[in-house]
Amino acid sequence: MSISKALRWVALLAAALLLGLFFKGCEPRQSPIHPKTLLIGMDGVQLQHYEQLGGDTHLQRRLFSGKAYAGGVNGRASEQPTISGPGWMTLLTGVWANKHGVISNAESLRIDPEFPSLFKRLREALPSAYLSSVVNWSPINTAFLLEDAQGNNVRESGLDDERVTDRTLEILENTPADFTFIQLDEPDEAGHASGFGPAYQFALREADDRLGRLLDKVEERAYKNPQEDWLVIVCTDHGRDFWGSGHGGVTEQEKTVFIASNKPLNEELNQPSIPEDNPGPNNLYGYAAQTSVAPTVLRHMGLDLKPEWRLDGTPLLGATGVRKARAIEADAKLLWNSDSSGTVIIHKNGQVVTNVQAYLQQWTDPQGMRQANDYVLELDDTPVAVRTRPASKPFILEEISY
Asked: What pLDDT was estimated at residue 390?
C-alpha cells in the first residue's frame, strides 16, 4: 500500500471516530432515577388467617412476602408489648421500644428525638421530599409522632379505611409522593369486636382489595414515569391471640407478623437464619424483625445507613451485614450470624472498640455488660445495633391485652 493510500485510510478512520463521538454526544441523556416509597400498614392482621383467603389475594399474587416477628425478643432488652403504639413506632423508626420510648398506647407518649421516624430522617436528608402520613388510628399522628412529623406535607388522621385509601390514591395521582405511609385499621377493629370468624375474614378481604387498588395506581404511575423507582412495603403492627379478640402478650401468634414488597428482598426475609442460643417459638427469631422495615426504606430512598443512628433492624435490600445481632449480658457476649470473610467493626457507646472477623460470630466485651450499653456491629457498610440492659437487672414480663 502506498503512503498516500495509507494516509487516506487514517483520515477516513479518524473521521469515522469523530462522527461516532459526535452522535454519541447527541444521544438523549437518561433521566436520573427518583426513588419513591409507599408503606402500607394493616393493623392487627394475623398472617395465618390472611393466608386462608387463598392464593388469589393481591398479597399472594403480586408481592414477595415473608414471615416476620414483632414484640422484640422475649425476656431480652428488646421485648415490647404486641400492641399498636410500640408496633407502629418500631416499624417507622427501625428500633425497639427500649429506644424509641413508646412502650404503650398512652397518648401522652412521644418518640424519643434520638431515634426519629422515617419522616424526620427523610425530611433532614431530602428537604424537598413530599412526605405523607394518612391513618385511621389517630394516635400515630396526633400523639406519638406529633412533634417528629411536623415537617410532613400531609398528615391526616381519623379517616375510615375507605377514605384512607381514596386519599392515598389522590396523593399518588397528584403529588410527588416521595414517601407515603398509610394505616388501615378495620381488620384490628373486626378482631376486637368478634375475634376470628366471618367478620374478621371479611375485613381482611376488604383490606386486600384496597391493597390491590393501591398497587394498580403505583403500577400505572410507574408506567407513566419510568424514571421513578417504586418500593411498596406492606406490613402489620402485631398478630392476635388464640381467639383473635386480643393481643399484647408474648405468644407465638401475637408475635407473628409479615413483611411483603413489590421488589424481591434479600435473604434476611426469605432465608431464615436461626440464632441457636435463643431460636424463639418454632424458630420465630430466625425470621426478619419489624425493625427491618425502616432501614429498608432509608436505603431504597438513597440514604447511607449510619452507625450513629443505632438502628436495630437489618435492611431487606442490599447487603445484610451481620444477621441476628444479639447480646448475652451475663456472659458479656455479642453474638451474630454470618459466614462472611469480612471484618465486623464493633462500636460501643459511639466509639469503635475492636474489629472482629465476621465468621467468628461472637465477641466478648472485656469490660463486661454490668451497665446498659449501645453496641453497633458494622459489616459491608451495613450497621446493626444492640442495646443491652444491665446484667444484674431483672426483666419483668407483663401481659397487656387490648
From this structure: 81
